[in-house]
């Protein structure tokens, strides 16, 4: 075969593989829509009509007879005040995205400290999911404290070999399994940064649900940091948006940079109202979701053992939040097909998220427990595991 023919054949194979995965994704989303039982029904799985219906009752959250917002006033300012109150900070600023919000907060701190270096975890969101935005756009220089699937330790912060102006901690660390430190570990890490005259910024996209594991209030947790970022859609089911909370002077400067970054949007009332709804309706329920996620995790472990798959890892074994990882010794595509087939044939979707390759013959997915997940009993979970395993090759599958 000529080099040209071989390349054509490889390209055709890659195209077919991409098309197959695209079809599988479409089947997965369709199965999620039709499933009678899932652990969570996220906004991006819903129609526009369903999403707009979630704003029903918004008159209880804000005076809808007031004029609509204009460039960050009105309902947006009300949301900012609500967030600052919950976190116990002097002020807060609304941003359209967390990527923008954290860049702005950290470049503001860099101007104050005179050091653009940000110490963070190798699995933190800016390092994994933002296309090097810190360095390419924000003028910041990230350095990695560790790549272990845990939070950085106080020793790693204290003994790092070069100066840094800010320490960024992602609470919880999503790509390591939504893991959190203990309260004692967190306070020690913060103290180690202070010893180095570094400011501390919390990437708190999922800070809202971290109170259970840390055993402290939102105000106490946020009070450890110099600034905090929070998201309105990851757990609160808002339409989008984020906020930076901290000292008033920092927040006022962040608003200037928000404008420069193009984040001062003409009108944002739907997103702001949905965030207020999330704070009112979902925030109080998060501890219940965390508690039930632990029931689900235990049932998954027991179900896999009973189904003859003792090498199945739930991580953390006792979830720190209402989200956690499941690891299985199969290729990702095999697990995805089994997940979708199970949902199509039984109406029960055990694993709604995509599977990602974690090594040869090893894959990982995320399990997210929300209000829909409260309907599952431990026995429901074990039954679903048995149905799923039956559709895996070599496990009596069909």
TrEMBL record:
Which Gene Ontology BP terms does the record give? glycine biosynthetic process; L-threonine catabolic process
Record domain Aromatic amino acid beta-eliminating lyase/threonine aldolase: where: 72-301
KW Hydrolase (keyword) present: no
Q: Provide the alphabetized UniProt keywords.
A: Pyridoxal phosphate
Q: GO MF terms on file? A: L-allo-threonine aldolase activity
Q: Name one Pfam family in it.
A: Beta_elim_lyase
Q: Where is the composition biased (Basic and acidic residues)?
A: 1-10
Signal peptide per UniProt: none
Essential cofactor(s):
pyridoxal 5'-phosphate
Region feature Disordered, mapped onto this chain = 1-21
**Entry GO terms, CC:** cytosol
What superkingdom does the record give? Bacteria
Q: Which InterPro entries match?
A: ArAA_b-elim_lyase/Thr_aldolase, PyrdxlP-dep_Trfase, PyrdxlP-dep_Trfase_major, PyrdxlP-dep_Trfase_small
Q: Which family does it belong to?
A: Belongs to the threonine aldolase family.
Q: Please give the PANTHER family that the UniProt record associates with this protein.
A: L-THREONINE ALDOLASE, L-THREONINE ALDOLASE-RELATED
Return the protein name. Answer: Threonine aldolase
Q: Which source organism does the UniProt entry give?
A: Streptomyces violarus
Lineage of origin: Bacteria, Bacillati, Actinomycetota, Actinomycetes, Kitasatosporales
């Amino acid at each position: 075969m000529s080099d040209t023919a071989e390349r054509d054949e490889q390209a055709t194979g890659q195209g077919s593989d991409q098309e197959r995965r695209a079809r599988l994704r479409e089947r997965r989303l369709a199965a999620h829509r039709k499933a009678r039982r899932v652990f969570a029904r996220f906004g991006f799985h819903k129609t526009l009509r369903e999403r707009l219906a979630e704003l029903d009752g918004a008159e209880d959250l804000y005076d809808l007879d007031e004029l609509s917002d204009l460039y960050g006033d009105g309902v947006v300012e009300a949301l900012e005040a609500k967030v600052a109150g919950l976190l116990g900070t002097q002020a807060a600023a609304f941003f359209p995205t967390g990527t923008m919000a954290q860049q702005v907060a950290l470049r503001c701190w860099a101007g104050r400290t005179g050091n653009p270096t940000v110490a963070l975890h190798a699995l933190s969101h800016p390092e994994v999911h933002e296309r090097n935005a810190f360095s390419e756009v924000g003028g910041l220089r990230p350095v990695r404290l560790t790549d272990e699937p845990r939070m950085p330790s106080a020793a790693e912060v204290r003994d790092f070999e070069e100066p840094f102006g800010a320490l960024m901690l992602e609470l919880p660390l999503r790509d390591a399994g939504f893991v959190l430190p203990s309260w004692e570990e967190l306070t020690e890490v913060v103290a180690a940064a202070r010893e180095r005259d570094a400011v501390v910024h919390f990437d708190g996209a999922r800070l809202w649900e971290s109170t259970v594991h840390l055993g402290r209030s939102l105000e106490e947790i946020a009070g450890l940091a110099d600034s905090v970022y929070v998201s309105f859609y990851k757990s609160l089911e808002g339409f989008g948006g984020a906020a930076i909370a901290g000292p008033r002077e920092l927040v006022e400067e962040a608003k200037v940079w928000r404008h420069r970054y193009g984040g001062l949007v003409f009108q944002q009332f739907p997103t702001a109202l949905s965030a207020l709804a999330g704070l009112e309706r979902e925030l109080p329920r998060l501890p219940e979701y965390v508690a039930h996620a632990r029931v689900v995790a235990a049932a998954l472990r027991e179900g896999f053992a009973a189904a003859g798959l003792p090498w199945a890892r739930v991580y953390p074994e006792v979830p720190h939040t209402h989200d956690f990882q499941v690891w299985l010794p199969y290729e990702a595509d095999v697990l995805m097909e089994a997940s979708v087939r199970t949902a199509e044939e039984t109406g029960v979707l055990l694993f709604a998220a995509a599977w990602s390759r974690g090594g040869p013959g090893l894959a990982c997915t995320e399990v997210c427990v929300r209000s829909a997940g409260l309907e599952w009993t431990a026995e429901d979970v074990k039954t679903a595991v048995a149905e799923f395993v039956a559709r895996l090759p070599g496990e009596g599958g069909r």
